[in-house]
Prior knowledge:
The complex is a heterodimer. By secondary structure, chain A is mainly beta.
Amino acid sequence: GAVVSQHPSRVICKSGTSVKIECRSLDFQATTMFWYRQFPKQSLMLMATSNEGSKATYEQGVEKDKFLINHASLTLSTLTVTSAHPEDSSFYICSARFGQQQETQYFGPGTRLLVL
Amino acid sequence: GQNIDQPTEMTATEGAIVQINCTYQTSGFNGLFWYQQHAGEAPTFLSYNVLDGLEEKGRFSSFLSRSKGYSYLLLKELQMKDSASYLCAVMDSNYQLIWGAGTKLIIKP
């Protein structure tokens, strides 16, 4: 299957700093990329959907000024957590899709963020 | 509202069979998915059902009844490596994935 990578896999930062997470589709062009957040023992929560070259669509309750998403190309999307706080500590997962069918959505390995 | 229900946790014995149920209520239906997620890792795709019936794929099978809003994932010949969370997700009429909270499956020797 297709490969999606995320970088970094794990990051620890101080409260108030910003953290950027990269999501890349390595062997296909992703028309759409999704960003999820998952807290321990909970399901995935969709944060935003982004299409290359256009603004991301954020889910209700997700602050777009805090979670900046840039989908600069068909193979790269970035999520920047600005002014991170301890409550932002979570597992962030991206996925990439090249079509309407869900079967073509592939997940990255996730990024574990710990804000001290 | 939309919701997906599945048991929080199940325990089974190595070599046995286990069935994980999922019921859903969504606005529209474009398919039901099962994913496996090991602790600390991202989900991996297991199965996709859009028509009623049973889909078999090796040791794993998935069943769907659209009229009942019900699906199950059947795991046979359980192995220790099957210990993971199993996520049920439904794609609604807007092609948005609605996720269940996941079922943590514990396999005992």
